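Reopening: C-alpha cells for the alpha-D-glucopyranose complex, inputs below.
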Amino acid sequence: MTSGLSGELKWWQRGVIYQIYPRSFQDDSGDGVGDLRGVTRRLPYVAGLGVEAVWLSPIFTSPMRDFGYDVADYCAIDPLFGTLEDFDALVQEAHRLGLKVMLDYVPNHTSSDHAWFQEALGGKESPRRDWYVWRDPAPDGGPPNNWKSFFGGPAWTFDQASGQYYLHQFLPSQPDLNWRNREVRAAMMDVLRFWMRRGVDGFRVDVIWLLAEDERFLDEPVNPDWQPGHPEHASLLHPYTQDQPETHAYIREMRAVLDEFDDRMMVGEIYLPVEQLLPYAGTPGSPMVHLPFNFHLILLPWNAEQIGAFVDDYDAACRAAGSWPNWVLGNHDQHRFKTRVGAAQSRVAQTLLLTLRGTPTVYYGDEIGMENVPVPFEQMVDPAGLQQPDSPQAGRDPERTPMQWDGSANAGFCPADVTPWLPLAENFREVNVAAQEADPASDLNYFRALTRLRAEHPALVAGEYRRLDAGHADVFAYERGLGPERVVVVLNFGAETRTLPADLQGTTLLRSLGTSEDQTALQPNEARVVRLEA
Ligand code: GLC
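Re-run output (same inputs, fresh job):
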C-alpha cells in the first residue's frame, strides 16, 4: 500500500476518524437522548477538530435493548434519532464541511423484532427459518452445546413453539444471522448499497470476526487462564465461534460491494492477536476490510516497554503484510482512556495516538479529557453490566455519558428541565468545550495542536516509523521521516525527569506541559514533538 507523500494516501489513511455515539452527542428534540439534528448542529465543531471522518454508532430502527446494536430495520432511521431526511441533511452538511460520513453496519445479528426473525419464528417451514441459526436440543433437552453469550449466560435460547434453540452471541433479543445462507448475504449486501447510494462514505462493521460458526457445533474448550470476576464469556476459548475461514470469504463479498462504488471504505471490529488480525485486510488481489481495528493500545498495560515493543512489532507486521496500520484508544465498549492510563499520562496517550504511523480513531469527548462517569447499579442501563453483576468492569455506561459542551445545566447536551438518559460527569462545569475553547492550555487545544501538526507536517501522516533509543526504559521515542523531514516524538511514560539525548534535540513543535523552556530535560509525563534539522 502507498506510503509516499500524504497526497497519495486515501482519506481513510490520511485522516482521523471521530466516533460519535449519537445518543450522547447532542439532544435537539429535547427528550434527553441525542439525535441526528443535534449531531448536524455540532458538525462545525467536529470539523474544527481537524478530523477527516465521523463514524456514527447505530442510528437504525431498534428496540434499543443494546442501544441500537439490535437492528430491527437496516434501512430506516429510528424515530428517536430522527428521519431519513434528517440523515440526508447530516450527510450534506458533513460533506459541505469536508467531512466523510461512516455508518455502523451490524451484520452478525438482528434484533428479535426484525421482520426476518419474526417470520423465522413461524416454524421450521418458514422461508426465513434458515436466515438464523437453529439447532435441536441436546439429548438432555438443554442447549445444543456449551457456547456462551458475550453478555453472560448461554448463547442459545429455546423456542417453545418449534422445540429448537436459536443462536445469539449477545442478548437473546439479538439472534445471529446465518451468513451461510445466500439470501441473507444478498439482503445484507443490499443494505450496504442502500446507504452508499445515499452518500455514505464508509462503514464500521460490528463484530465482523464473529460472522460464521463452525458447522460441527462442538463444545468450546475451557480457558485455563480465566479467573472469577472476569466476564463469563472469557471462561471459554472460542475456536468454533470466532475467526472462521467462511467469515473471510463473506468479507471478500462485502468488499466487492464496496468496490462497486468510488472511494468507500470499511473498518472491521476485530479483537484478535496481530497474526490473526492482519489477514482481515486481505491481499491486493483479494482485499477484505480497509482497516482491521487494532485495539492493542487499549488492551496492553500502559508502560513504555510494552507499548513500544508492540508498536515496533505491529508496524513491522503491517509493512510486511502491505496493510495500512491503525490505532484506537477508546470506544463505546471500553473505559475512557484518561481513566485507564491516569490523568497524568493522558497527553502522552493522545500524542501517541495522533503521531504513530496509521489511521487514528478518536472517541467523542476524549478530546476534552472526558473520564469514566461512575454509574451506580440502580442507574445502570447497559445490558452487559446488568446481566453480569459479578463483573464490575463489564458495564459500559461510564464511557457513554453525555458530551460536555458548556457549564450550563445538563452541559448544553439537553434542556435544563430534562433528565439526560445517562448521568453527566460531576465535573462538567470545569471540563467542557466552552471552557476549554477559552483556555490555551486545555486538552481541547492540545488535541487541535496535534491535528494541526499532522496537517502541517506530512511526515506525521505519511512518514515511515523508526524506533529511537531515548536512553531510558520509561521513555518511548520514535521518528517519522518523509523525504528530508524528520519529526521525532518523545514520550515520558514515567514520573521522573529525564534528559533528552543530544541527537533527539531540535526545534520543539509541541510539548504537552508548557511549564518549562528547558530543551534538554523531559519532565515527568511529558510528551514532546521535535523537528530535527536535516
Ligand atoms: C459490538 C459493539 C457493542 C455491541 C456488540 C453487539 O461489540 O461495539 O457495543 O454490544 O457488538 O452488537
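The chain has three domains: 11-106+182-209+254-446, 115-167, 464-532. The pocket of alpha-D-glucopyranose is lined by residues 66, 69, 106, 170, 206-207, 269, 332-333 (CB under 6 Å). Marking as resolved unless the reporter disagrees.
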